Amino acid sequence: MNSEVFFSLVNNLSLLLVLGFLYELMYPGFSSKPSRVRQLLIGGALGGIGMVIMMIPWEFTSGITFDTRSILLGISGLFFGTVPTLIAMFATGLLRIFQGGSGTLTGLLVICSSGSLGLLWRRAARTRPEALSLQGLYLLGILIHIVMLLLMFTLPLPVATSLLRVLTLPVLIIYPLGTALLGRLLHGRLQQNLLAHQLQASRERMLVTLRSIGEGVITTDEQGNIQLINPVAEQLTGWKQRDAAGKPLVTVLHMVDEQTRERYTDRFRRVIEHGVFDAPAELSIVRALDGSERLIAESCSPIRDTSGQIVGMVLVLRDQTEAKNMQERMQRNDKLESLGILAGGLAHDFNNLLGGIFGYIELAHEMSSEDAVQSFLSKAMGVFDRAKAITMQLLTFSKGGAPVQESFRIEQIIQENTAFILSGTDKTVIYHIADDLLPGWGDRNQIAQVIDNLVMNARQAMASNGQLTITVRNVPKDCIPSLLSTESSYISVAFEDTGVGIPKELLTKIFDPFFTTKEHGTGLGLATCYSIMEKHHGMLDVSSTEGKGSRFTIYLPAAVEHLDAEIHSQTTRLFSGRGTILLLEDEEPMREVLEQMLRGFGLEVLSAADGDEAVRFAQEAHESGRSIALAILDLTVPGGLSGYDISERLSELFPGLPLIACSGYSHDPIMARPKDFGFQGSLQKPYRKQDLIAVLSRYLEG
C-alpha cells in the first residue's frame, strides 16, 4: 500500500473531522427537525466544509483528485436531510466543475451517489435504528465507497485500472472508518440534543402544571435555596420567581404558628437533613411582603436523586383561608340558630305582653284628664320604641325575622343616621359615595339598624377628634367575595375608623352572640348586624390593625330593576270609620286592647280567641247576610287553628276580604311577603295605635 496515498487521505479525513467538530461548536442547537431557514444555513455550512476539504486533496494525476467529500455528503444525507444535502452537493459540484480535468464527470457522479446513498440510509434508519449504530455507519461507509470505486470505470480503462490498484485498499480502510467516526460524532450530538429537548419539554410541562394547580409549590436545592416558586406561591409570599430564585427559603417564606405567632425557622431543615417532615397539628400563617396574611396547610417532601441522596425538597402550600372562614361562618350560624330557637319564643311572648301593656297605657292616656297622670303615661309610652327595638334584635336571631324586601336609597339612610349618631361629638365623618350607586334591596329598617350599630361602634372606638370614613360603591363582578353569589349585584358600604383597633385573637369572636369587650355591652350589636346581613343574602366583613383602627364592610344586594316609592308616613292622625272587623287573637290582654281601639274608631268587632271561633263568627255573618270589612289574624295560636289555617276559608266566604297577618314571632315568611300567601298586609307585634290606623286607613277608607 502506497504510504503517501494513505497519509494524504488520513490528513484529509482529519481535516474533515476537525471541521465537523468546529461545526458542532458553531451550531450547538442541532435539531432533527430544523426550520427551513436553518436548513439553508446548515446546507451552506456543509457546502463550505466540503469546499475546504476539496482544496487539499490527494491528486492521482492532473484533473483526478481524491478527498473526503463522499464521507461528508453521505453523513449529510443521513443526519441533515434533503435540503441541506442538496445545497452541499450543489456547492461541492460547482467547485468540482471549476477545478475541471478529466475526472470532472466522475467527481460529480461521486458527489451525487454519496449524497443519495446517505438520504436512502436516512429512510432506512427511521424503521431500523441499528442503521445508526457504529456497525451500521461503517456499512454505510463501505457501501458509499464501493460505489465510488465502481464509478472509477467512468474514466478511461487504463486510468481506472491503475487508479484502483493504488486506491482500493486505502479507500476501503480509511473512508468507512471515517464515515463511522463522523457519524458517531453527529449521532452522539443528536442524542444529546434530543435528551436536552425532552428535558426542556418536561420542564415546560412541569411549569405549566405548577402554574395551573391551586396550591403553592416551592422547590429548593440541598442547601435550602429556592429553585422554583409557582404563581400561587408568588401570591402567598409576595415574591416573584426572578427575585426568589437562589435565596434561602426562610428569607422568602415568612411562616408563623397560628396560635403562638412564633416564626418557623428550622422546621424544614430536617427534611433536607433527615428526610422527615413534622406536619403541624394546626394551620400556619404565611405573611406576604405587603403584610397580608393567609392561613395555610403545608406538606413537605425531600427530593432524591437516582442514588437516593437528598438533593432538595418540595414544599406544597394549600390556602385554607376561605375554608377556615367558611367553617367559622357555619359555626357562627349554628350558634345563631341555637339562640334563635330561644330568642324566637321569647320575642313572641314578650311582644304579646308589650302589646297588651302599652295598649292599656295608650288607652289610659287617651281617657285620663289629669295632667300629672298623662305626663307619667307619656313617659311610659316613650319607652315603647326602646322595648320594641330589643325584641327586634331578638327576632333577628330567630328562624324568622325575614326582611321585608323593597328597594331604597341606602346613601340617604347612611347620611341621616350617621349625622344623628355623631351629632354633639368631636368626631368627623367623610363620605365617598359613588355617583352611579344602585339602590339597595332589602329591609330598610333592618339595614338602618346595621348602620346604627356600626357607626356607634366606630364612635365608641375613637378617641377625641377621631375620623370615620364611609365609602359606598357598586361592587364590580370580579370583586364579589367568594362567599356571595356572582349572579347578583351588590353594594358595599365600608366604615373605616381611626380607633383603637381589634386584637387579632378577638377578630373571630366579635360576631358571637353575647361576646363583648365593653363594660356595659350586651354582645348583641355585631351579632345582630351579622344575622341581618345573612338574612339579606349579603355579608359583613371586618379587618383591623390594633392601634390604627378597624374597617367593617357590609355587602348588600342591589336592586337593579326599579326603585320603590319612598313614601313612609309616620304621623299619627285621627281615624273614624264603619264596618265589621274580624279579630283573631289568642292573648286576652292583646285582644282586649285591640277591641277597645277598634271600637273607639267606630267599628264593630267580632273577637275570637282561636281559629275555630273565628270561622264560626264568619260563617254566622255570611249566613245572616252581614259583611265583614277586614280581618286581622294572629299567625301563632298554640293548640288551635292559626290565621293562616283559616285564611282560605275566609276568602271563600267573603271574596276580596282584606286579610292582615299579625304576629310577634316571624317564624315564617308570611310577615315579610304577605301577598305571596293570600294576605294583603301585615302587622308586626308590638304595634302602636298609629300602626293600626295606617292599616285601617288603607283598606277601609276610599
Quick take:
By secondary structure, this protein is of the alpha/beta class.
Biggest β-sheet strands, sense, barrel: 6 strands, antiparallel
Describe the global form: elongated
Beta strands, count:
20
Class by alpha and beta content? alpha/beta
| Quaternary structure | single chain
CA-CA gap between termini? 134 Å
Strand ordering within the main sheet: 4-3-8-7-6-5
Strand-residue proportion: 15-25%
Q: pLDDT average, as an integer?
A: 80
Q: Compute the number of helices.
A: 21
User: What integer value in Å does the Rg equal?
Assistant: 47 Å
Q: What fraction, in percent, of the residue positions are helical?
A: 40-55%
Unreliable residue stretches? 562-572
Overview of the structural elements:
The chain is of the alpha/beta class and 702 residues long. The strands form 5 sheets. The chain has a 6-stranded antiparallel β-sheet. It is elongated.
Task: List the main descriptive attributes of the protein structure presented here.
single chain; 702 residues; alpha/beta; six-stranded antiparallel β-sheet; five-stranded mixed β-sheet; 21 helices; 20 strands; 51% helix
